[in-house]
Amino acid sequence: MVNINHRKCIICNGLLNKSVFIEIENMPPSAQGFEDTKEKSLKRQNGKIFQCSRCGHIQLDSQPVSYYKNVIRSVGISSEMNTYRRDQFVNLRSNFLNQREKVNVLEVGSASGDYAKILLETFGNVVATEKGEQGRKLTIEKGVNCVDTHPDEKDFKSKLVSYSCFDLICCFSYLEHLPDPIHTLLLFAELLSENGIILIEVPNSEMIFRNGLLNEVIPDHISYFTTNTSIEMVSRAGLEVVNSSTSWSDYIITLICRKRTENPLDNMFQRYEDFKEKLNSLFDHKLKDYSNIVVWGAGHQALFTISTTILKSVVNYIVDSSPAKQGLYAPGSGLQIKAPSDLKVNIPDVLIIACAGYNNEVKKIVKSYNLGIQRIYTLNGLILEEV
User: Fold this and answer.
1) pTM across the whole model
2) Which residues of 24-44 are buried (b: 16+ CB within 10 A; e: fewer)?
């Protein structure tokens, strides 16, 4: 192994002058270059594979294969993979898309459209991309609207913006082929709706490294990702990973990503100011005739909200289930904390349940008391809802 003094890392753009590489001799020039004569098939190539000393990403020092814009899957998906994808997409809707009925989906690199068809059956509204007539033909035959473009084409964004923003963008075994995957992810972010997610899958190279499988290297794949380096890539594209996992006997890394919050401090401040205004309006109008107002919850979120809003001047006392807090006074507001049983002695006109993840449990307890409280609200973050 020797030092390399040129090139830049695909992920962090750092100079590789302190990195090391190994030379590989006599590699096949591609995984798809099957020839019609023996003489043509004897072509081989040498290459270097190196690891960035800054971010740790491992990459092949070679140009992309000539057909890298065409997604090639040599076989159709198996019944087991079909079932896996259907379950995966249903779980995406449930866990990351708030059970939305209408989900606009984009699959980038659809190959023959097998995954796009399952996406269509699951979400009902899918656009796919594929470069090359054969792939587009197969995708369209499956009933999917397929656009002839690639992220490295200048028309990629312009051909897709007319479809509005996408709530889900999928990219399966694709980024490892690209000379500039971060450029592609930046394009995804521009096409993503405000609360949308991106599903990325790349081959898991950690297994290759741990088992010394040099024969897994092929010029078709420029990048060799681990979970850490794939997350690093996503982060450098201005996205955040909300879930990462490996699957399919540890061969696949799966990342669920979304747009990173820009200017988080400004965002928090402005949203909280809006919340305070809505709270002021509620007590100035809808609740102005109620005098006995109680908050159930003395956790940090409830204490902050009471102390920094109109609640500190309109709330009579706080209820909390913790005996360690009962009889004491809340920091910031000076309100006394009482036991839940006190609600039965002095029934409030308005009860605000501010127990974060325990709100539903507390609602059931209050309902079992059958006190006839006139108005009950729950506070979830900055959302105050009447029960």
Assistant:
1) 0.78
2) beebebbeeeeeeeeeeeeee
